[in-house]
Amino acid sequence: MKHSKTVFSRVARSGMGNAFHIVHRLPRGARSLPAAPSLTPEMEFRLRCVEHARRSGVTDAVVVFGRSRATIYRWCARYDPTDLRSLQPRSRRPKRTRRRQWSAEQEAAVLRLRDASPRAGKAKLRVLLAREGLVLSESGIGRILASLRTRRLLIEPHGVRVRQRRALRPYAVRVPKDKRAPTVAGALIQLDTMHLRPLPGRERRQFTAIDVVSRCAVIGIRSTATASTAAAFLDELCSRMPVPVQAIQVDGGSEFMAEFELACRQKNIALYVLPPRSPKLNGRVERLNGTVRREFWECYDGDLDLPSLQQALRNWETQYNTHRPHQALTYLTPNECLASRPVSHVSN
What we know:
The chain is α/β, with parallel strands linked by helices.
């Protein structure tokens, strides 16, 4: 059988007897495919959940993915394989929302009164509206104000922050660099107060002082922490501290101003004040506050009147200074450490 040239050309184009490749051409008008949709983590999770439910059942998908049966059924009903956007989370806005329950006249009256009194709240506006014969609830006025703010019909005045001038410290100064790490006892005493509430409605203030070098402690208790009570505690500190007090370091509390600062000046005691928000620079006394809280206040079950507390704290203070070993002192007591350290007699 003879074949025509047309048959031979068709056979050659089909690749019979020769190497060939098939070329797929896109139809006209579709020369480029759209980019694949990007899946968010939530859409990817829902896709895996729906595919698993179709393959293994909804009951198994509940166990694997930790979603309720109703949720998985709802995802399966929404899922369209040709449109992955069907897996996007839908808006949770309620179908029925609260509608405006006030009239334009009431809104205009609230806006007028608020412009006349910019700082008036909804409670006062309710009274002012009642004087004009308009009866509105406080919550309703609040919703009207919120709507006016949203539509930019009500512009609230900007608040002005008033910076208070820092109190003058005629005697207290920042601690000098050469005084920050003393090596002799008495050169620097850290002093702090601790706010205590042993019972509801019962408050006490504890004054805590510690020598940086020897760790000798002096503790007092007062009903309030004022400059006068701090000055009175300074007398106790000077009489009960086993070394001469040469300098005291305090924070910026108001109890360490005025009378207390004057008392330090009269006693020729240098007074150093810490920068704001830096309790770490008073680390010795902050640690002592925690020790007193754990070892005394959490174990104390006596009376809470000042004489009983003062006596109990004095007994604990004696035990702290003479019997309790201190880890930072290689398990020596503060008094034992004081006996082996030089004492400062040079005024700061």
